[in-house]
Amino acid sequence: MSRVEYARLPTEAVLAAAKNLDALPAVAVVRLLAREERRSVRAVADAAVTIGAIAEAAARALGGGGRLIYLGAGTSGRLATLDAAECGPTFGARPGQIVALIAGGARALRRAVEGAEDDGAAAARAIARLRPTARDLVVGIAASGVTPFVASGLAAAGDAGATTALVTCAPAAARAAGLRPDLVVGLDVGPEVLAGSTRLKAGTATKLTLNAISTAAMVALGKCYGPRMVDVVPSSAKLRARAERMVADLGGRPARAADLLAAAGGRVKTAVVMARLGVDRAEAERRLAASGGRLRAVIGPPAP
Predict the structure, then answer these.
(1) Coil/strand/helix, residue 191
(2) Which of 55, 170, 199, 259 is the most exposed place for a label (fewest CB within 10 A)?
(3) Cα–Cα separations (whole angstroms), residue 77 to 21, 54, 101, 246, 296
(4) In which residue ranges of the chain is pLDDT below 70?
(5) Which of these three, 158, 187, 220, is where a domain ends?
(6) Do 114 and 248 fall within a single domain?
(7) Which one is catalytic: 117, 192, 244, 285?
(8) What's the pLDDT at 185?
């Protein structure tokens, strides 16, 4: 894009309320930032229908043996990597099910890699290495809507037959730049307090959107029971304690929660079924498998 076109991006606009930002005391800057962040939440709520459609596509991909692949540069890539990393311990996602590609590679997680976002060829190569198919969903994240790394990666994924989606704060710019993903989330966050710094409102709205996509997809796949993360991987003291509490609360046999969880190999859902139905691990796992891993289908709805 030319300089003139970049200047027209909504992510480059100047916020009138911040015209005297450099003269404000720290507390006033904080209040201004907090006030403007309310728009991030509204933007995500306004885009709920499309975000929900992407979550449904993610559930279909993961449930059908495919992958959810995120693609981003800078803040967008770091947020994508965070969301992908958290799905393992939170939902028991297997390695390789949810993948994040960030411009500049792993080193870009710690330090900005200048120019990496402009390297569209690198994105195409990274996508090619993953060998996407029609079973996969590839979600590009680009606040400006015109990041070459994201545009090229989405194009390569689409050519390979994958379903594609874009999360952006500039959907019109994305269309003008030739991006044609299957689904587009447009987040109207307005100009940043610090003009062009999309780690602010754009970053917050992106984080909320990725939270919503992965969480709603996992809910659809039976990874929770009520508000409980019953597919949690108890890999730390805190998570082990949480797992035991869930077994105690949902299984109805609190005195045996630790023993049941151990007998279930650390699997909360298995332990709960063992406790509630009085069956052994093999039978609990059989019933869960028959229900597609949905605890509600095995033991009924949560108690009031």
Answers:
(1) coil
(2) 259
(3) 28, 18, 7, 33, 35
(4) 1-4
(5) 220
(6) no
(7) 117
(8) 98
